[in-house]
Amino acid sequence: MKLSDKIALVTGGTSGIGLEAAKLFREEGANVIIVGQNQARLDAAASQLGKGVTALRADVTKPADIEGVINQVREKFGRIDVLFANAGMGLAAPLEAVTEDQIDTQFGVNFKGVFFTVQKAAPLLSKGGSIVITTSFLNEVGTPGLSILSATKAAVRSLVRTLGAELAQRGIRVNAISPGPVSTPFHGKLGLSAKELDETASAIESQVPLHRFGEPAEIAKAALFLASEDSAFMTGSEVVVDGGISQL
Ligand SMILES: NC(=O)c1ccc[n+]([C@@H]2O[C@H](COP(=O)([O-])OP(=O)(O)OC[C@H]3O[C@@H](n4cnc5c(N)ncnc54)[C@H](OP(=O)(O)O)[C@@H]3O)[C@@H](O)[C@H]2O)c1
Question: pTM for the complete prediction?
C-alpha cells in the first residue's frame, strides 16, 4: 500500500476528482479527511467512503473556516502527510459579459482557497509530506469564454513553484496535477444552458486527441503518484493527465 498510515486531507473531496482520490487514498492505507462546503454532499460522500474517513465542512474562500478544519485535524490526528488542495469551480462567460463578481468568486475559490488551505495546513505538514494542487489543461490553451477560470489555474500553477521553493527546506514537496476535461459535475456548474453544455461537450471530445473525457479515477491515480513516495524526487512539477489536449 502506497499511503499506509498516512494522514491525507482532500479538499473538494465530496465530488468528482476529489471523491475518487479520497477513495483511492483510503484503499492505499491512508486516514482520509474530506473537506467540502455543502453538508449534505459531505454526509453523502462520507457514507459512500465508509470507515477511515472524516468529513469536515469548510468554505475554502473563508480562511477562518479552513483554520477550523485544521484545528480539528490537529486535535484528532496531530499531523498531515498528504494535502490534496483540489476544491475548485468555474464560470463561463465571454469577455464582454465577465463581471467583477465572477472574477472574485473564481479567484476566491481557485486561488485564495488553495493559498490559505496550504498556509493554514503548513504548520501540521510532516517532513517528507506531499502537497498536490489541482490545476488544469486551461493553463496551456486559450478557450473562448474561460478567461477567468484559466487565469486562476495559471496563477495556481505559479504558486506550485513558489510554494515548492519555500517548503523544500522543510522536506515538503509541492506538485500540480493538471486534468484535461473530466466527467464530473464541474461542467454542470459553469452556468451554461443544457444546449450549450451539449455543444461544448461535443466540441471538447473532438479537440481531445484521445477523443473522450477523462474519468475521475484516471486523475486520482496520478494524484496518488504525486502524493506517495513514488514521486519522491519531484517538486514544483505538474503532471498532465489530459488526453493530449494541451500537449499535441
Ligand atoms: N472536471 C474537469 O473537467 C476539470 C478539468 C480541469 C481541472 N479541474 C479541476 O479539478 C478540481 C476538482 O473538480 P471536479 O471536476 O472534481 O469538480 P466537482 O465534481 O464540481 O467537485 C468540486 C469540489 O470542490 C468543492 N468546492 C467548490 N467550491 C468550494 C468551496 N468554496 N469550499 C469548499 N469546497 C468547495 C466542492 O464541494 P461542494 O460539493 O461542497 O460544493 C466539490 O467537492 C477543480 O479544482 C477543478 O478546477 C476539473
Answer: 0.98
